[in-house]
Amino acid sequence: MIDTVRRFVPLLQWGRTYDRQSLASDSMAGLIVAIMLVPQGMAYALLAGLPAEVGLYASIVPLIFYGLLGSSRALAVGPVAIVSLMVASTLGEIAEQGSAGYLAGAVMLAFLSGAILLGMGVARVGFLVNFLSHPVISGFSSAAALIIGFSQLKHLLGFEIPRSHLITETILHALTHIAQVNWATLLIAAVSLAILLGFKSRVAGVLKSTGVSAGLADAIAKSGPLVAVVVTTIAVWALALNDTAGVKIVADIPSGLPPLAVPAFDVDLARQLLPAAALISVVGFLESVSVAKSLASKRRQKIDANQELIALGAANLGAAFTSGYPVTGGFSRSLVNFTSGAVTPLASIITAVLIGIAVMVLTPLLFFLPKATLAAIIVVAVANLIDIKTLRETFAYDLADFMSLVATFISVLTLGIELGIVVGAGLSIVLYLWRTSRPHMAVVGRVGDTEHFRNVLRHEVKTDPAILAIRVDESLYFANTAYLEDEILARVSDSPDIKHLVLIMSAVNFIDASALETLETLTERLRDAGVTVHLTDVKGPVSDKLQRIAFFDHMGDGKVYLSIHDAITELSAKPTLPPRKAA
Fold first, then answer.
1. Whole-angstrom Cα distance, residue 338 to residue 335?
2. Does residue 261 lie within any of the structural domains?
3. Strand 441-446 vs strand 467-472: parallel, antiparallel, or unpaired?
């Protein structure tokens, strides 16, 4: 019972060795992430079509729940760009932005996502999300980054642009109405971008060159969003740009902690949002666990995927009960959390406490915060999601994966977020089935006088004309059994001297019922043709299942050898048998 509780509440494990030094490190990391998350949270809420304070609400209780239950010691949970875009895309179909129905839909999405993730974690089915391959996620992220970036044009330019998932329509409208640009807003956006990019690329190096410690220099460099917020907010307030130049501002942000309330459960709304909630859950989990594993590997720590599902599920339920919207682990914040010295999930709890204090005390100071600044923060944050490196490497490495990446990218841009990723995932699975339906099969021979056997097309090897040794480099299942049978029969028919067929099963991890029937039929047909079928290098689990149905007893004179060396050594000394006559 104690071990079970410790597994589901990692706090009970790392908490036993917690010390003052860890607290100092976590406190510094929590402070830096909080400074970064306050403007980001508001920006992502606006991206989702929600009031700015909702992003802050989603950055308090969810972080506490993840800190208590998460297996990652560096992952920083909260609002992220891609999930915010998916929320906006989903809710835009059922309610008008700013309406009570829109906010209720966001809360319901958080509740459904939390329930789905929690259920998957308890059922320990985290492996199911592996059906979204890395190329599909890369294509989706790159396309989503472009959609997110161009969706902020209206805030950067200062005039209204109709919402569209087609980038071409957004750009065309912006170009044809460029005379409506608000120059004050554009200037604020440009200043914000300059500050953000300057802090991101220059500040740390300049500070280090002046003798500032590396840790302090990096911490200051991460404060770019806060500096942009402070500078532009003071400028708008001092010059009254919201009145004199029409600069749009955040205006009133309610002070105080988020209200604790049970989400109003609407069956029809839940049914409408369930598919999108499932997709948000999967995408959010994939983003989180990939970041968590990457950071954990740097410290030789372990990540429990099923525990991550439980922690993220609890975090989203926490968001639903505190008027938030779906959250997940963010790459940039997690990296900042890691590099700032976070050693346990307590850093996330400290971040949540600091944001709670900011919500209670500092929100009146954000009245004059221009929306152009938040848009600039979003644009800089999502720029890293455009993954040119994976596109280039995938093209060079595997054409099928490249096709799934490009198909996902184009589908997301042309068909929308949800349908685009479904198309990409479907194509990825289809390409996998096509690839495994034609398994690599190599005829092998002995290398010199050694016990090593290699492909006859790649190495100088010795072969026995009476023995055909074939290595099957794929598990056998319904999609590739016909190809297997056709290839073997063709090779046997091309070599009339063959008396023994040795199937090397070292790469076969399982054989399904269809493949088993094909093996039985193939063994019988070759026996009638005077060719005896033998197996070698059969893995334990495969051998157990074949023995269960007495397959080896039906192989006739065929044997099962421990290694290809044993098989070739024995069969080369055996006399061959004449073909069986047909009855």
1. 5
2. yes
3. antiparallel
C-alpha closest to that of 109 among 276, 288, 261 = 276
Q: What is the pLDDT of residue 577?
A: 44
Beta bridge partners of 472: 441
Q: Is residue 577 part of a domain?
A: no
Same domain, 498 and 388: no
Distances (CA, A) of 570 to 299, 449, 502, 534, 574: 51, 15, 12, 12, 7
- Give the percent of the chain with pLDDT over 70: 96
- Residue 293: per-residue pLDDT: 83
Domain of residue 449 covers: 441-572
Contacts of 337 (CB under 8 A, 6+ apart): 29, 32, 33, 74, 75, 76, 347, 348
- State how far the Cα of 355 lies from the Cα of 62, in Å rounded to an integer: 12
CB 145 within 8 A of CB 122: no
Query: 201 with 300, same domain?
Result: yes
Residue 167 · residue 146 · CB < 8 Å: yes
* Other beta carbons within 10 Å of 262: 8
Contact 281, 116 (CB under 8 A): yes
Of the three residues 394, 429, 464, the one that is the final residue of a domain is 429
Strands (E) in 399-486, as ranges, are 441-446, 453-455, 467-472
Q: What is the pLDDT of residues 404-430, one digit of tens each?
A: 899 989 988 888 777 888 888 888 888
Residue written as token pair 């506490």: 64
pLDDT value of residue 581: 43
Q: What is the CATH number of the domain that holds 468?
A: 3.30.750.24
- 210: tokens are 């002046």
Helix or strand or coil: residue 14? helix
> What's this model's pTM, rounded to 2 decimal places?
0.78
Please report where in the chains the tokens 């006399």 appear, as a residue.
575
**Residue among 443, 454, 448 at smallest CA distance from 492:** 443
145: its two tokens: 């980054």
Query: What contacts 134, CB < 8 A, 6 or more positions away?
Result: 390
CA distance 86 to 47: 10
Q: Are 94 and 272 in contact, with CB atoms under 8 Å apart?
A: yes
pLDDT of 280 over the 90 cut: yes
- Do residue 236 and residue 145 come from a single domain? yes
End-of-domain residue from the set 375, 401, 429: 429
User: Averaged over 158-165, what is the pLDDT?
Assistant: 82
Q: Is residue 535 classed as helix, strand or coil in its secondary structure? A: strand
